[in-house]
Amino acid sequence: MRDIFKQICAQVSEADNTIASVAKRKWDCVAKPIGSLGLLETALIRVCAAQRRLVPVLEPRAVAVFCADNGIICEGVTQTGSEVTAIVADNICKGQANINMMARCARCDVVAVDVGMCSPIANPALISCSSARGTANFAQGPAMTMDQLFNALNAGCMVSERLVRGGYSLLACGEMGIGNTSAASAVSAVLLDIDVETVTGPGAGLNADGLRRKIAAVKQGIKINCPDCDNIYDVLSKVGSFDIAAMTGFMIACAAQNVPVIIDGCISAAAALCAVRLCPAVRSYLIASHVSDEPAGKLLLKELELDAPITAGMRLGEGTGAVAFMPLLDMAFAVYTQAASFESSGVIPYTTFGAVSQ
Description:
The structure is a single chain. The protein is an alpha/beta fold. It is 50% helix and 9% strand. Helix 1 packs across helix 6, helix 7 packs across helix 12 and helix 7 crosses helix 13.
């Protein structure tokens, strides 16, 4: 399993910078002030470079929602229990969850994946590739074995490959799992070398006492496990979660197939940082959608050197932020491919100048 995953990592090469440059010049020919669509232009250029196409393909598209449970909930770090993960996963499969409502508006398919739920559901729409029935409580020891970690990484790769074979040209990922913000906080604190308090928020809605318990549990987990920040496998196995691991594999496999992937909020951004640390070229395939309201969200995007177009105070998960960005990408595509150019309008093109001195 380890060799298979590492072979996929070895297949990743940087997105096409030549295509990116040509796409930028094409944008600059559109009859509007240069760069005036800001991050929407940047995102579409990244899609072009990833797909190695001057005119990108945005449909069909899908969001994979990786569902898993976390033993850390034993420390009282959540409002609800692991049964909620199964309920939401079932709702996703039935087309009744939050992500389904938003995805319909965005013409995006939704795929639910069990990579470690405590209570499996009997729904044929669910992709089942569970590593275990939830992680262990990382406040008391490692979250998972190394074999379980590579199972989760490979599960993410498998889902990506399956969707690409199915004809999807643009992918996104999200997660569902009670307790996974605690794992994301731990992974973020270790990889960013920052205090746990700085990257830990209330998640689905903890009160002050709950937040204190969560911070204490994450601190204890890091202290007990001593994850090596220079070894992503060590970090993920000791204080990570199955959904973060699966999203890490998913992003790497997308990059290996020249498919751009839209990342969601804080938890998928933590996975994105793991993917980039394992395989730096993956970064050129990532598109940030929104700035999560979770404390680590902005810090993770800064570390990834990615700017997100949407700042809406979102922290729902399930891939909802990634899907919310898709219609904006469609609008950018319409301007990029259909708007009048300076030449066709008979307008003198704008000139790009340096910063204006005061």
